[in-house]
Amino acid sequence: MNETETIFEQSRCISHEIRNHLSICEIYTQIIRKHLEEENINNNSINNALNCISKSLKIMSNSLLDLKSLNNISLKNCDLKELLQEGIKLSEVYIHDKEIKIKSDIKTSAQALIDENKFLACIVNIIKNAIEAIDKKGEIKVSLEIKDNNAIIKISNNGEAISKEKQKIIFEEGFTTKKTGSGLGLHICATNLKAQNAILKLNKSTPEITEFEIILPVFRN
To answer: Is the domain of 32 the same as that of 83?
Structure first.
């Protein structure tokens, strides 16, 4: 077995073990839901947390399938407004003790042919980066505009600006501005969105605002 085959086999085994433990997490979320129902407990915070955990588990399971196939894109018609709202909700956990408001300007919607889990993962990743760019207090804005036959999604923040030198290579594999970053997040986002006929770009990054934009074809509801 050569080195490439060894790495592939190791990845396959690791993926299998991770998926086993993800399934355990999903089983326990179902058990918790059942106990809450049996005890007639309706707590919105707990329900929201369980929903976010379940969705995150699905995203992770979907990502692990990439280790088995280089073409693991499953396209289906999705409502962009619902996906963006779900992405915002999933991202809020990263705020922790910061004073950050995530504002949405999503007054319309449209259907898009995309991979639901991979698209959602990209939205969460970009918002998470925005949260990390803000030191203590700030604002993140997520907007959706339908223009001609395209959806234009903008995610902006008023955190630390990205230098002009780094803006040129921000989507390259291995690039990161974080001390503990892998340099894979934005590269994976750009790659996965391209496979869904979407474009990810950095519009601008100044001391006042950093804005990312996603453009993808849609058809109106």
So the answer is: no
Residue 52's Cβ-count burial label (10 Å; 0-12, 13-18, 19+) is middle
**pLDDT tens, residue by residue, 33-83:** 999 999 999 998 898 889 888 888 888 877 776 665 556 788 999 999 999
CA 171/CA 70 separation, integer angstroms: 20
Tell me the three state secondary structure of residue 174. Answer: coil
The domain containing residue 29 runs over which residues?
3-67
Is 36 found in the same domain as 13?
A: yes
- The total of structural domains in the chain comes to 2
Of the listed ranges 117-126, 136-145, 166-175, 198-207, the least confidently predicted one is 166-175
Percentages helix, strand, coil for the chain, rounded to the nearest 5?
Answer: 50, 25, 25
Is the distance from CB of 110 to CB of 220 less than 8 angstroms?
A: yes
